[in-house]
Amino acid sequence: KEMIKCMDNQVTPAELEDLLLREHSSDIADVCIVGIPDTVYGEAPAAAVVTRCTQASKDLAELSRRIKKTITDNCAVHKHLYGGVFFVDCIPKTESGKTDRPAVLRKCC
């Protein structure tokens, strides 16, 4: 399932993924937005991010802050990354090459 339901509104992961890849192309190699089950939001949008190069933890904290700010500044409140930003080595793919969202969700929870 791709669609995320946050605060009774639909969130399209591809919209947020495209925005982040466009705005942070020098830092982000790949990104996947998933909905983490949440008692307040229903599903809290979260970003699993693959960086272009190894970064120190303080640099990752700064990148995380910039990623959240990009979404906050450009998207409606129900699309904000309430689930957080997670840095992963790779985004799991299915045999057909599509993003394996359930596997990504397991990495983020």
TrEMBL record:
<protein>
    <submittedName>
        <fullName>Putative acyl-coa synthetase ixodes scapularis acyl-coa synthetase</fullName>
    </submittedName>
</protein>
<dbReference type="InterPro" id="IPR045851">
    <property type="entry name" value="AMP-bd_C_sf"/>
</dbReference>
<dbReference type="GO" id="GO:0016405">
    <property type="term" value="F:CoA-ligase activity"/>
</dbReference>
<dbReference type="InterPro" id="IPR025110">
    <property type="entry name" value="AMP-bd_C"/>
</dbReference>
<dbReference type="Pfam" id="PF13193">
    <property type="entry name" value="AMP-binding_C"/>
</dbReference>
<feature type="domain" description="AMP-binding enzyme C-terminal">
    <location>
        <begin position="25"/>
        <end position="98"/>
    </location>
</feature>
